[in-house]
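Field reference: sequence -> structure
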Amino acid sequence: MNDPAIFGYDLFGEIVKPKASGPVAERFTFPPFTVLDTRSGEWQDRKRAWIAMGIRGEVGRNATVIRCPNQSNSDGMADANYTSAFDPALVELAYRWWCPPGGQIVDPFAGGSVRGIVAGVLGLKYWGCDLRPEQIAANEKQADEINLAVRPEWVCGDSMESLATAPAADFVFSCPPYGDLEKYSDDPRDLSAMEWHTFVGAYKRIILRSVQRMKENSFACFVVGDLRDKAGFYRNFVGTTVAAFEECRAHLYNEAVLLTSIASAPMRVTRQFEGGRKLVKTHQNVLVFCKGDWRAAAAKCR
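Structure field:
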């Protein structure tokens, strides 16, 4: 049962022996169910182990926080000085579950360092694109400081253009901007600075270009969450993402609910619910798409 081909190696070079209980968890690191609980002790332990390597996903992400996806995005309120950082434990699972060993990852919304660093540690090739040179510089600095099996490649530019020269992807994995929840720059090419109708058009074109880079019989995974418009109604960002992939003939294959930190939700819930009957949002959506034959795609990942 301690086969590294099943478990992989942990951050210290030892065969992974997950703490999550039960034979299913032991075989797949965490149970591959449709609810992923980042609040569990086992998940938090794994996340801390990744962070202890020196991963600092928030560095370079000097966003103007308007509404924060992990903290609120239901009522438009955000904790002061909060900027989101991607969860490295989720990255590890996505790579182990849907990317072939030694495969090439393409990330059209690279942002911080996390997805590239985790790929490098796991011996995967990574190509990510971001508009801001200061973000690319911060990511490269972290890559210099961490012992990586494979060096990630970050490209500074507009995904709309840069994806044309991206490598052929065994796995597309990304977390796009959640509309204007966090504004990263005033660059007119920056999706987070666009009005919603413009955002949707650009977002769909980037998804099209991403799917064009995917090899036949491969998976893509986007982590998204819904957000409200100025009138207080949901924009259906999850549905927009699904429709964009489906239009490119990459079909929805898996979806999971990612339970995120409660954070300040208990402090906000009374005013939010009594004032408008709005539920406090404490989850995101993990959407997995397949281009081609899912059987062939799955066979590559075993």
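Note: The chain has one domain: 37-300.
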